[in-house]
Amino acid sequence: MAEIGRMSINQATTREQHSLAEAIAAYAAHGVTGISIWRDKLAECGLDRAVSLIGEHGLRVSGLCRAGQFPAADAAERQARIDDNLLAVEQAVALGADCLVIVAGGLPEGSRDLPGARSMIRDALGAVLPRARAAGVPLAIEPLHPMYAADRCAINTLSQALDLCDELGEGIGVAVDAYHVWWDPDLATQIARARGRILAFHVCDWLVPTTDLLLDRGMMGDGVIDLPAMRAAVEAAGYAGLIEVEIFSAANWWRRPGDEVIRTCRERFQQAV
After folding, report:
1. Whole-angstrom Cα distance, residue 258 to residue 58?
2. All residues at 6 or more sequence positions from 232 whose CB lies less than 8 Å from its CB, including other chains
3. Using omega within 30 degrees of 0 as the cis cutoff, is the peptide bond preceding 66 cis?
4. For 146-210, where are the alpha helices, taking DSSP H only?
5. Eight-state DSSP code of residue 131
6. Which of 61, 62, 99, 217 has CB 3.0 to 4.6 Å from 204, enough for a Cys bridge?
7. Phi-psi region of 125 (alpha: psi -120 to 50; beta: other; left: phi over 0)
8. What's domain 4-272's superfamily in CATH?
């Protein structure tokens, strides 16, 4: 099973219990190695204070979540989103983040043009990538489950994400999130194809039945994903970085005390990942 020293907690896992400052202190107190930070929580805390707190507590920032959300109905809004992504690159630099996670965005309001949305994503990534390369911040495209294609992310398989990487070149890779890709019959082939381009690995579990397609992720070991097999595949493809626990759980884990959630994450990471 996974070594506890490789565990990072994505801040979403305790977003209802903790501010960013509280999460940094709590994770460090439980011996957690890393944190993945969400930009809304970063805005509440302030970048300078966050950088100071991370340094004081000795945490590694495994990722900054999230950039992307590129497609929009008009050119001005598309440019505004590109500009926000350029800001996210600078935030990632300041935090020393391992990568900037890209959740690319879905259909513009009122649109049914999915290929058009994907073209907007490709073009916007191309606009952001030179700045990211110059800053030394890898962009990690995170494909989301197809159920989110309309409203959250039109990049839905590792194959699609890797096609973009092939086209755009150096400085861009993928985030492999178990919740979003476990179902893919081509998963093993695409993880192997991603050798050298896996920038993040996120774990949780898929519950059966699931009661909410966004906010009912399971704790590792409580669902149907073969997490050890997926970890072995990403490691065989060369990934040796931190492994993020990322759990959105409105009816369960977000209602529990933060310390209980962190303790359980540590236990299950060693038992089920």
Report:
1. 20
2. none
3. yes
4. 158-168, 178-181, 187-193
5. H
6. 217
7. alpha
8. Divalent-metal-dependent TIM barrel enzymes (3.20.20.150)
Taking only the tens place, the pLDDT of each residue in 208-264 is: 999 999 999 999 999 999 999 999 999 999 999 999 999 999 999 999 999 999 999
pTM over 0.85: yes
The b/e string for 226-253 (b: 16+ C-beta within 10 A; e otherwise) is ebeebbebbeebebebbbbbbbbbeebb
Tokens 């989301």, residue? Answer: 144
| DSSP summary character for residue 177 | E
Domain edges within the chain: 4-272
Using CA atoms, how far apart are residues 60 and 140, in angstroms rounded to an integer? Answer: 17
Q: Before 228, cis peptide (omega within 30)?
A: no
How remote is the C-alpha of 9 from its chain's centroid? 11
